[in-house]
Design goal:
By secondary structure, this protein is mainly α. The protein is built from nine helices and no strands. The protein has a domain of 120 residues: Orthogonal Bundle (Lysozyme). Helix 6 crosses helix 7, helix 7 crosses helix 8 and helix 7 crosses helix 9.
Length: 201
C-alpha cells in the first residue's frame, strides 16, 4: 500500500511539473502572430481572441457550422459582408472566410465594433458575438437580461449562455498558459473600459 502511495505522489509531481506542457497540448495557440497583430491593432486582448477561436472552431480554419458560420472565428457570410463594407472593403466573398488571415482580421474588426457598441462590456460583447447584436439589444430593452455576469442564466439562448461562460474561462486559461505574450488590454469583466478612446478604423 505504501508503494502505491509513493507511485501516486510521483505521478502527481510529474503531472504538476508538466502542467503547462499538458495544458498547451490541449489548448494550443495557433496563428499567434496573426492574433497578436490584429488584437494589438484593434486594442483587444489576444487571449480573448484566442479563446473565441478555440471555442468557436478549435482552430480549424475550414470549420463550417450548420448555420453556415465559417472559418476560425465562425463568421456568418452576411456578418462578414457587413463588417467588410463597414470598413470600406469591396468584393467580399464568403469563401474568403476560410482564409485564416482574412477571418481573424474580420473577426477582430467585428469584436472592436461590438466593444464600441457596448462601451467595453465584454459580457455583452460575447453574448452579441454568439447570439446576435439585435438580440442582445432586445434582451436588454425588454429587461429579459440585466447584462451582468452574475445573471448569465437570464440569457434566453442556452448556447449563448454556455458560449460566454466557456470563452471567459478559456481566456483565463490562455492567460495562464501563455504568460510570455506582451501585456495588452485585458477585456475582462473587471476591465470593461479598456477599449475606449481607440480608433476603430
Amino acid at each position: 500500500m505504501r508503494n502505491l502511495w509513493w507511485v501516486f505522489l510521483l505521478f502527481l509531481a510529474v503531472f504538476l511539473l508538466n502542467l503547462d506542457r499538458i495544458g498547451r497540448y490541449y489548448y494550443p495557440f495557433y496563428y499567434r502572430e496573426l492574433i497578436q497583430y490584429h488584437a494589438r491593432h484593434y486594442n483587444l486582448d489576444p487571449y480573448l481572441v484566442a479563446a473565441i477561436i478555440k471555442t468557436e472552431s478549435n482552430f480549424d480554419s475550414r470549420a463550417r457550422s450548420p448555420e453556415d458560420a465559417r472559418g476560425l472565428m465562425q463568421i456568418l457570410p452576411e456578418t462578414g459582408r457587413w463588417v467588410a463594407e463597414h470598413y470600406g472593403e469591396q468584393g467580399f466573398k464568403a469563401d474568403y472566410l476560410y482564409d485564416p488571415a482574412y477571418n481573424i482580421r474580420l473577426g477582430t474588426r467585428y469584436l472592436a465594433y461590438l466593444f464600441r457598441e457596448f462601451n467595453g462590456n465584454v459580457i455583452l460583447v460575447l453574448a452579441a458575438y454568439n447570439g446576435g447584436l439585435g438580440n442582445v439589444h432586445a434582451w436588454l430593452q425588454e429587461t429579459r437580461w440585466t447584462g451582468e455576469r452574475y445573471a448569465l442564466d437570464q440569457i434566453p439562448f442556452p448556447e449563448t449562455r454556455q458560449f460566454v461562460r466557456k470563452v471567459l474561462w478559456t481566456q483565463r486559461l490562455y492567460r495562464y498558459l501563455y504568460k510570455e505574450l506582451p501585456a495588452g488590454p485585458r477585456n475582462t469583466p473587471a476591465h470593461r473600459g479598456q477599449t475606449s478612446g481607440k480608433s476603430w478604423s
